[in-house]
Each structure stands twice: as structure tokens, then as C-alpha cells.
């Protein structure tokens, strides 16, 4: 099987440290600025607005506004990466999946800064644990990213693990199993639009990453009965 993982909120907790990362970035880039903690809180609120879901609206490439592509935000991403923590011993999970013969890929959206997602994967020590790394959003759309997976790996069962299930809507195919990893920060957006989950076929919900092995077994059983 092909097992594809989102990164932020799925393999690492990079959300609980956002405010502290802003504070550190301000300290490094604007040492003269007064009230850095207050500015960090304000910037965190603004960042959270960018995290709000766009249900089924991932058919275009996106380029962040210029003010998000500055040295300050580059510094913020680096500080955020330093503070981020793996979820549920994610590196060991990836190793175990590969040991069992699965193709494991990173399948996530690009950051505001071009190339930053790959850099953060490397900082987290996970980049080399993947068989492939596919980043969508800037150079290719989510639709094109999924098409690339099929071109590379054929029509094998594709298990897509993401804490942002709104990405699932309108994407994938009949051989896709959708796994919503319930991460509290992003789950609150889904709870406000829970009826939209009905639009996602073959949806599985897990609250710890190691439950993915139960999903794999259920899929195997289902395929064996067909």
C-alpha cells in the first residue's frame, strides 16, 4: 500500500509553539521592538486565520503575499521547526510501515517560504524516512500532486493520512482510503462543519497514529472480501 502523510498536525505538533516561535523571531530580527510578547500574540492570531479550512477549494496553485515571504517569516519557520515535537513517536511509525513493505510518502502543502517544508522535514529528522516527498500548493495543485502519485506508483491502494480532512473533498479516487487524524487544533474547524465529512467516502478517524495499523488491517479485510 501507499501510505501518504501530511506533516503539520499529523506527524509533528507545530501549532502549540507558534506564539513562542514568533517571540523568538522578533527577538532575533527586531531586538529594538518593545512589547515583543504582545506582538507575538497578535501575529499568532493572524497566523491562525491562515489555518482556517477551505473545504474542497484546493484546485489552484497559490502564492503567498509578499509580506509572508520575508526574512522575518523565514526566521519564524526555523524557530517553529526547532520547537516542534513529533506526535505519537512518528519516526518509529514511519520506520515500522516501511519494514512491513509499504511505500511511505510525505504529501503536504508548501510553506509561505519556498523550500521550507522540505527544510523542516529534514530538521525534524523525518525527510530520509520517506520513500518520496511531494509538496503541493506552489508549483503544483493538490489535484496534480495526486495525479503524480498515480503516475509514479500506479493504482495501488492509497491511504491518505491528514489532520485536515477538508483536503480530501473532491480529491483521490476509488482506491483511496481517507484517514482523518484527529488533532485538536485543526479538529475544531471540522467540528463546526462536521456535516461536510459525509462528502468523503471511505473515511476513517483515528486519534493516535498507531491506530493506522488497525485501518490497514480493515482495508485488507475489505479488499479480501471483494
Written description of the protein model:
The model has no long low-confidence stretch (mean pLDDT 90). The radius of gyration is 18 Å and the shape is globular. It has 226 residues and is of the alpha/beta class. It has a single domain, classed as HAD superfamily/HAD-like (Rossmann fold, 3-Layer(aba) Sandwich), CATH 3.40.50. The chain is built from eight helices and eight strands; from the N terminus they run E-E-H-H-H-E-H-E-H-E-H-E-E-H-E-H.
Brief sketch in words of this structure:
By secondary structure, this protein is α/β, with parallel strands linked by helices.
The strand count comes to 8
| CATH hierarchy: architecture | 3-Layer(aba) Sandwich
Question: Strands of the largest sheet, in order across it?
Answer: 5-4-1-6-7-8
Spans of 5+ residues with little confidence (pLDDT < 50)?
A: none
Please state the structural category.
Answer: alpha/beta
Number of helices: 8
CATH class: Alpha Beta
CATH topology: Rossmann fold
What does the main sheet amount to? 6 strands, parallel
Mean pLDDT: 90
Secondary structure topology:
Elements lengths: L1 E4 L6 E2 L4 H12 L6 H15 L20 H13 L1 E2 L3 H10 L3 E7 L6 H8 L8 E5 L5 H12 L4 E5 L13 E6 L2 H8 L11 E4 L5 H14 L1
Parallel strand pairs: 1-4, 1-6, 4-5, 6-7, 7-8
Antiparallel strand pairs: 2-3
Amino acid at each position: 500500500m501507499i501510505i501518504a502523510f501530511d506533516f503539520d498536525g499529523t506527524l509533528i505538533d507545530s501549532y502549540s509553539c507558534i506564539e513562542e516561535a514568533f517571540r523568538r523571531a522578533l527577538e532575533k530580527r527586531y531586538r529594538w521592538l518593545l512589547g515583543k510578547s504582545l506582538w507575538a500574540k497578535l501575529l499568532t492570531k493572524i497566523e491562525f486565520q491562515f489555518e482556517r479550512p477551505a473545504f474542497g477549494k484546493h484546485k489552484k496553485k497559490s502564492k503567498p503575499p509578499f509580506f509572508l515571504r520575508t526574512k522575518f517569516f523565514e526566521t519564524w519557520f526555523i524557530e517553529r521547526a526547532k520547537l516542534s515535537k513529533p506526535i505519537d513517536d512518528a519516526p518509529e511509525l514511519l520506520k515500522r510501515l516501511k519494514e512491513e513493505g509499504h511505500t511511505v510518502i510525505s504529501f503536504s502543502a508548501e510553506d509561505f517560504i519556498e523550500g521550507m517544508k522540505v527544510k523542516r522535514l529534514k530538521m525534524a529528522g523525518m525527510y530520509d524516512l520517506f520513500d518520496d516527498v511531494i509538496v503541493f500548493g506552489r508549483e503544483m495543485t493538490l489535484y496534480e500532486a495526486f495525479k503524480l502519485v498515480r503516475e509514479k506508483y500506479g493504482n495501488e491502494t492509497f491511504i491518505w493520512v491528514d489532520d485536515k480532512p477538508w483536503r480530501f473533498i473532491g480529491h483521490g479516487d476509488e482506491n483511496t482510503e481517507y484517514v482523518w487524524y484527529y488533532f485538536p487544533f485543526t479538529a475544531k474547524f471540522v467540528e463546526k462543519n462536521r456535516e461536510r465529512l459525509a462528502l468523503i467516502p471511505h473515511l476513517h478517524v483515528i486519534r493516535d497514529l498507531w491506530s493506522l495499523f488497525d485501518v490497514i488491517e480493515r482495508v485488507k479485510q475489505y479488499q479480501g472480501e471483494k
